[in-house]
Amino acid sequence: MAVLSAVVLARGVLFAFVGLFVVKLVGGQREARGTLEAHAAMLEELATSRERNRMARELHDTLAHSLSATAVQLEAVKALWDDDPDKAKAMLDQSLEGARTGLGEARRAIQALRASPLEEWGLAGALQHLGSAVEARSSLAVDFAIDDDLGEIAPHLEQAIYRIADEAITNAARHSRATSVDVLLNGRGRRLVLEVADDGEGFDTSAAVPNGHVGIEGMRERAQMVGGSLAVESVPGTGTTVRFEVVAAR
Q1: Is residue 26 one of the residues assigned to a domain?
Q2: E-strand spans in the chain?
Q3: Contact of 226 with 160, CB cutoff 8 Å
């Protein structure tokens, strides 16, 4: 009887210990999950804030540049209108063209704020649509080589890939004097690789960042935010290659 009581007591103590351990384990998991959720929310908020700041800078740069140029040209037109009407009319045509270009860029930036191409077309489709839009407003030819089976990619990684590609292609169209851009996206195991290579004039990466390449730092920040890396390879006269790599959780 004493042995049976001891066994029952031992089992009771064991069950109590196991129950306490399970309770602490569940509590720890809940706490960890809460911490992860809070961290994810903070990262999302930071990403949203940075994206808004980037778009605000782009809108400011686009509108400020085009409006300033138009104002200067119109002042010149006003000064030349009586003395040299032919030159004044030519400058007026230039100012109109500059205003139309600035308006188009502003509309593109606003459209990017309104819509989510990834939700509408998926990653591959959104990239193709992006290339078509760039070709429509510039003389740049955009060619894609995208793996047919990239697997399931987390939404925040898709967003990073799309935005980095957008910035790299837009920089090539605006500033590199390139005629073509090749966009490569493939998956090697758990690693995703995006390459955007243009045949433009290139620049010295060891020197200060040139005008028109301010988006490079933004691309690097975006890559770091998702745990990836971004490299920019360029030599004057040989074009520029932007390479983004990230390990994707499958």
Answers
A1: no
A2: 141-146, 180-188, 191-198, 229-234, 240-247
A3: yes
Classify the C-alpha dihedral 5-6-10-11 as positive or negative: negative
Give the full edge-to-edge strand order of the sheet including 141-146. 141-146, 180-188, 191-198, 240-247, 229-234
Does residue 54 sit within a domain? no
Q: Which domain holds residue 207?
A: 122-250
Three-state DSSP at 133 gives helix
- Six-digit token pair at 151? 């697997």
Which positions ≥6 away from 235 have C-beta within 8 Å? 202, 204
Which CATH number belongs to the domain containing residue 249 in this structure? 3.30.565.10
Q: What confidence tier does 94 reach under pLDDT thresholds 50, 70, 90?
A: confident
147 within domain boundaries: yes
Half-sphere exposure of 249 (CA within 13 A, CB side): 6
Dmax of the chain from CA atoms? 122
pLDDT confidence bin for 51, thresholds 50/70/90 = low
* 219: nearest Cα among 208, 207, 228: 228
Which is nearest to 51 in space by CA: 249, 228, 222? 222
Total domains in the fold of the chain: 1
| 240-247 and 191-198 strand pairing | antiparallel
pLDDT in tens, 62-74: 666 677 778 877 8
The closest alpha carbon to 218, from 92, 80, 47, 22, belongs to 47
Residue 201 lies in a domain: yes
Whether the pTM exceeds 0.70: the reply is no
Using CA atoms, how far apart are residues 234 and 240, in angstroms rounded to an integer? 4
